[in-house]
Amino acid sequence: MSNAEWEVVIGLEVHVQLHTRAKVFASAPWGFGQEPNEQVDPVVLGLPGTLPVVNREAVEKAILFGLVVGAEIPAQCAWDRKNYFYPDNPKNYQLTQKDFPVTMGGKVEIELPGASRNVQGEHKFIRLHHAHLEEDVGKLSHSGSGSLVDYNRAGVPLLEIVSEPDLRSAAEAAAFLNALVMMLTQAGVADCDMEKGQLRCDANVSIRRRGETKLGTRSETKNLNSISGVRDCIIYETARQVRELEAGRAIVQETRGWNAENGRGYVLRDKEDAHDYRYFPDPDIPTLKISRETVQRLQKQVPESPYARQQRYIEKLNVPYTAASVLIAQSDLAQWFEVAVAAHPSNAAGIANLVVNDLLRELSASSGAAEGADIAKVSLASCRIQPAHLAALVKLTDEGTISKQQAKEVFTEMFQSGQSPVQIVESKGLKQNSDTGELEKIIQEVIADPSVAKSIAEYRAGNEKAINALKGPIMKRTQGKANPVLIDQLLRKALG
Ligand code: ADP
Ligand code: MG
């Protein structure tokens, strides 16, 4: 396959379970890990005589998402019935929004992978078509003896976010999902826990000859449940379509499935059309008016966007690009970092470095996460170190009270005991020796030693570096506790 010749075009439909207490049209709660069919009520089960009531919290989370991506929030939205017969859906229709979705348009800033890990990649905006609020459906499991159904998931609020066909590679699709997850979690709209199936994605993929402006025929692969799955599936599907076209065959518009185990896609069915579902407006739910007051109130909850935050860390706080990228990926981590910076604003880079390297490493080791596991998933709940204490540790190092080496020791102790660095330094007697009188005495002894006479002569002759040969013996005599800045000062004074 020749990449020079073919261009891949991708549009994603992302289904996200919203972070709400109750289901979208019923008061039944929802959550992960319950026994099957515990989180149901007559509305969820579609029993005769029940009527749906729209959950305000779900609508507000959907609107908040729209505001986060700069979408238009129409003055009203409405629900339709998508009719189909399958046991995952007790009512035989799914409530969804076909013609009047809750948000229209908007865009998502993404960052493409850079030339290397330390280099910032290109940024690009992906347009959204709309997002609509619907209900999730139940889960079937099939075994030899028959099929079982669990309606716990039925009626969970699901926001379907539909992109324009703006994505041009598997890497762009992955970057888009990463950015969405950051925005959704930061705003508290959704938790996006993919292991719990809270974010699922359909990938529409087509190819066309480079330079061609018309879109090619697409396939749609349903129900991808991880970012790596989306990436692998797009790579696979692109290669398949190139093979088909280069063999002189046409692409069939079809609905496909993805087998993550063997890394292959397969045909599910011919593409279904809207008329197959006989959509019609739901007569039970009145059109919902969205007041401008509600929109204005929610606008205040829109957080700083992930990449604006990344830029701020880099430009205003002097945090290196790689550390800034790790911090913005997890909003509670970024908040933790900012609390620490507030306590010692003059060295945000030093704090970022400790958070991103030492703290995350220790947290993932203590949570038993596998080597190389997604570091951004580390939980801060069990973290004993307080942000202000971490800041105090950096401050102690910056002021020369303890050495960098001692700081490592203090950090380990802080992580285990949750004590403040000042307490640890005191109780372990770790303070660097800043006693001028005592140091001056040691320096006099060291420079009187004939073995260093040559270095002293070189230094006096103008070789600045020769002075370093004297620092080792001085440090040794103080058992490594002397403040290096002070040694340097006093030594220069002593040598004239
Ligand atoms: P449907 O509702 O029938 O699935 P839509 O027109 O609403 O179709 O598009 C669904 C998704 O497919 C959108 O994300 C859109 O960007 C994407 N899409 C549409 N046409 C193409 C194409 N030719 N190639 C790739 N993606 C496409
Ligand atoms: Mg579709």
Please render the helix and strand layout as text.
Elements: E1 6-17, H1 56-68, E2 76-77, E3 80-83, E4 93-96, E5 103-104, E6 107-111, E7 123-135, E8 139-143, E9 146-150, E10 157-163, H2 170-186, E11 199-209, E12 219-224, H3 227-246, E13 254-259, E14 264-270, E15 280-281, E16 288-289, H4 292-299, H5 306-315, H6 321-328, H7 331-343, H8 348-366, H9 387-398, H10 404-417, H11 421-428, H12 436-448, H13 453-460, H14 468-477, H15 484-495
Helix pairs in contact: 1-4, 2-3, 5-6, 6-8, 7-9, 9-10, 12-14, 12-15, 14-15
The structure holds adenosine-5'-diphosphate and magnesium ion.
Adenosine-5'-diphosphate binds at residues 9-13, 162-165, 204-206, 215-216, 218, 220.
What does this structure look like?
The N and C termini lie far apart (72 Å). The protein folds into 3 domains: 3-298, no CATH class; 306-428, no CATH class; 436-495, Arc Repressor Mutant, subunit A, CATH 1.10.10. Helix content is 37%, strand content 19%. The chain is elongated. The relative contact order is 0.10. It is α+β, with helices and mostly antiparallel strands. Strands 1, 5, 6, 7, 10, 11, 12, 13 and 14 form a 9-stranded mixed beta sheet that branches. A 3-stranded antiparallel beta sheet has the order 4-3-15, with no helix packed on it. A two-stranded antiparallel sheet has the order 2-16. Strand 8 (139-143) and strand 9 (146-150) form a beta hairpin. The chain contains 15 helices and 16 strands. Residues 13, 202, 220 line the site of magnesium ion.
